[in-house]
Amino acid sequence: MGNDENTNLSTGAAHVGICPYEPGAHVYSSFQEPINQGSYADQFHIYEVRWYENFIQWYIDDVLVYEVTPNSYSSQFNWPFNDNEWYLILNFAITSSGPNSSTILPSFIEVDWVRVYQENEISGCTNINASNYNNLATFDNGSCTYEVTFQVDLSCSSISPNSVNVTSGNDNWSCNGGISLNDTDQDGIWEGTSFMQEGIFSYIYCGDNWNYNEEIFAYAQSSSDWSCTPNTDYTNYANRQININGPLTVYETWGSCEPCSSNGETFGCTDPSANNYNQNATIENGSCTYPPTTVEFTVDMNGINQPSSITTM
After folding, report:
1. pLDDT digits 0-9 by tens, 4-21
2. What residues contact residue 29 under an 8 Å CB cut-off, 6+ apart?
3. Would you state the CATH architecture of domain 145-262?
């Protein structure tokens, strides 16, 4: 952690790719964290890096300020931080932007103490619904992945692409570097499955290496229907978005938030008990959402001093 020139900022970064730097073959994910008042140089601070198999977190004075996971980088880069031997080096580093006319030399860093320790718990994925569930794990390390199936209906569009992809910031919106879909039965519905980490995922559909763009932003602007593009500034872009917290199937229509109708059929949620039940739907499309499940706890307190409250953890 550190920063050029300003002592009211702390920065950190995780680099992947080829070292030394080569354009297009090396990227990094970084942050800048300002201090609320004064300077980081005014007093001692606790800087902490928590390094697990599938995520790295930065803390300043016990506050989480940044995190990177394999999803922080495009798919062309392997996540290197869960393999091989690694070494910790504490030094006064010179970045690619320095030294320069603003650099103060000599400079010093004062360290009160350094501590390195390892978790005693068994880390892993503790969610039984995940594809990589570890029944021996006692600590969830953020590595859970879930099977996510994308289905996009092009049967009511006027295009006939040779390839369709899910593209996102993970592949730098490259289209051909995203999740590949296929239409093997040639029914106009392109489908593909990927194992993805828990969290928010924003994306759109594209075809033939951006020769086709579903233009979902133009659709939302013209129709005022932003229901399937919650990640938007309403001015320049609109992206689809899902929350991955378990196995998931997504059924959507190319360039629209409305389902295609085929041969008099209407896609939608056909379960009357669901929040979004569509009485006009004739074909289930996997979009049903349900109210939260109520769980009732009964605790036998016979023979025990009655507490003022009980908290479930």
Report:
1. 556 788 888 888 888 777
2. 13, 14, 68, 72, 73
3. Sandwich (2.60)
d(CA 304, CA 310): 13
Report DSSP letters for the chain, one per residue: -B-SS-SSEEEEEEEEESSS--TTSEEEEEEEEE-SSS-GGGS---EEEEEETTEEEEEETTEEEEEE-GGGS-TTS---TTSS-----------TT-S-TT--SS-----S-------SS-EEB--TTSTTB-TT-SEE-S--EEEEEEEEE-TTSS---S-EEEE-GGGTT-STTSEEEB-TT-SSEEEEEEEEESEEEEEEEEETTTTEE--HHHHHHHH---TT--EE-SSS-EEEEEEESS-EEEEEETTBSSPPEETTEEEE---TTSTT--TT--EE-S----PPPP-------TTSPPPS-----
pTM equals: 0.54
Nearest alpha carbon to residue 290 among 302, 277, 280, 300: 277
Which residue intervals of the chain bear CATH 2.60.40.10?
145-262
Token pair for 176:
């051909």
Instruction: Answer whether residue 129 shows pLDDT above 70.
Output: yes
